[in-house]
Write a structure and sequence with these properties.
4 helices, mainly beta, single chain, Lipocalin
Length: 323
């Protein structure tokens, strides 16, 4: 995956990359003692430095997605790329036969370009991704290697995974500030709302939520958190060095389709996705000179109707560094 990202990065002018940010992110359900449903995610991404928003007539090929964002005066703009791989498995991975009443194995490899407009009280982000779900995603090989290295149980049913399918997704997210106020120790707290929508054959959904943050100079980093998978706003130039940021996000929404559950399978499945969705995340970021580290706990309600557990979770570990 890193080789593919480097090839994509070669298309970005060096003058832009020199003041930008790389990030890596890992998500895994082992934090909650699980090994099923959303099992693992890995992301390598890049976002440019934030520059003053220019009139739309000056938008270039690298940030063409800004044409799709409503104009936002007095904002700064950024663009970015990422490559990611995700995988989903049944709750029982030690069974070799197809499990018609459990969610199927599914793997997804995606490439995405995104753009963003940031201001101290409103932020907009969008992204267009192209990917492949199925054996071509190589999720089976990655999970097998990880489980072998850790001495965990070998997943036995990947031969029954969702078949190869080309995916295309468009996502849009907007954050609105409600209130920001001073707090002890020269810190601030704030409450904001957000809407995250996605349209595509992988997943289409509509979500609304609230974000609480506590830290310092929050106006400089508003909108960098996101509910969009793998999106990380550039914090290299704006986040205070040697500082902490605590955050909590909650959202609810409606899902219209889910390829990880209703995709084409080599067997007859009786599983139906759950359209009503809810999730929450709480975590902390530490900013140091030239980068940051973030850890969060994430929970979400069941994604298919016959799931015997109401909630699942995963842990997130993320590192950013400026280049």
């Amino acid at each position: 995956m890193s080789l593919r990202l480097c090839l994509l990065m070669s298309l970005v002018p060096a003058s832009i990359v020199n003041a930008s940010q790389f990030h890596i992110q890992m998500e895994n359900d082992v934090t909650f003692g699980e090994d099923g449903n959303y099992s693992n995610g890995m992301i390598i991404g890049w976002e440019s430095n934030a520059s003053l928003n220019q009139p739309q007539t000056t938008y270039s090929a690298r940030n063409w997605l800004l044409w799709l964002l409503p104009n936002q005066p007095d904002s700064v703009q950024a663009c970015g790329l990422k490559v990611s791989q995700r995988m989903w498995t049944p709750s029982e991975i030690n069974i070799e036969q197809p499990q018609a009443d459990d969610r199927p194995y599914a793997g997804l490899l995606e490439f995405e370009q995104h753009t963003a407009l940031y201001r101290s009280d409103i932020a907009q982000k969008n992204g267009l991704s192209i990917g492949v779900m199925g054996p071509a995603s190589k999720a089976e090989q990655l999970q097998g290697a990880i489980h072998k290295a850790l001495g965990s149980s070998t997943p036995l049913g990947w031969q029954h995974q969702v078949e190869n399918t080309l995916t295309m997704q468009f996502a849009y997210e907007i954050d609105y500030l409600f209130v920001r106020s001073s707090a002890p120790f020269n810190s601030q707290w704030e409450l904001s709302s957000f809407n995250h929508s996605a349209l595509g054959n992988m997943r289409s959904d509509l979500n609304f939520g609230l974000t609480f943050r506590w830290g310092t100079k929050l106006e400089q980093t508003f909108g960098r958190l996101s509910s969009h998978f793998g999106h990380v706003g550039n914090l290299s130039d704006d986040a205070p060095v040697q500082s902490l940021l605590f955050f909590t996000r909650m959202q609810t929404g409606y899902r219209f389709n889910d390829l990880t559950i209703d995709g084409k399978l080599p067997y007859q499945s009786t599983v139906e996705f759950n359209p009503m969705q809810a999730s929450a995340a709480t975590g902390v970021s530490y900013f140091f000179y030239g980068g940051s580290a973030t850890w969060s706990f994430n929970v979400y309600n069941k994604e298919y109707l016959t799931d015997n557990k109401s909630w699942h979770g995963f842990g997130l570990l993320q590192f950013t560094w400026s280049i």
